[in-house]
Input
Amino acid sequence: MINPDCSTSYPGIFAAGDITNAFGKRIIIASGEGAKAALAARQYILDLRKTV
Ligand SMILES: Cc1cc2nc3c(=O)[nH]c(=O)nc-3n(C[C@H](O)[C@H](O)[C@H](O)COP(=O)(O)OP(=O)(O)OC[C@H]3O[C@@H](n4cnc5c(N)ncnc54)[C@H](O)[C@@H]3O)c2cc1C
Output
């Protein structure tokens, strides 16, 4: 199960593509979700650095 930003219920774990509950099992959707997950993961790391 993913949230709109591809994050999961486990902090720091992001998911994309067919393994998720996202609608539409298609290459273009998996690719877009992958890009979204990468951006969200980057933001997660940047936010972590702010708290340290
Ligand atoms: C027969 C068929 C035809 C299709 N035709 C189309 C089409 O014409 N157009 C279209 O848009 N979509 C099509 N699809 C759907 C499309 O293939 C998928 O939506 C897309 O490939 C999903 O990408 P993904 O990266 O999420 O998953 P996948 O492409 O399944 O990639 C997952 C990868 O993870 C690897 N993996 C699995 N477990 C592990 C592990 N434990 N450790 C490391 N690696 C692991 C797998 O080997 C695989 O390489 C088709 C699907 C099938 C089955």
Q: What stands out?
A: Residues 1-52 form one domain. The pocket of flavin-adenine dinucleotide is lined by residues 17-19, 25-28, 30 (CB under 6 Å). The first helix runs from residue 27 to 51. The chain has a mean pLDDT of 96.
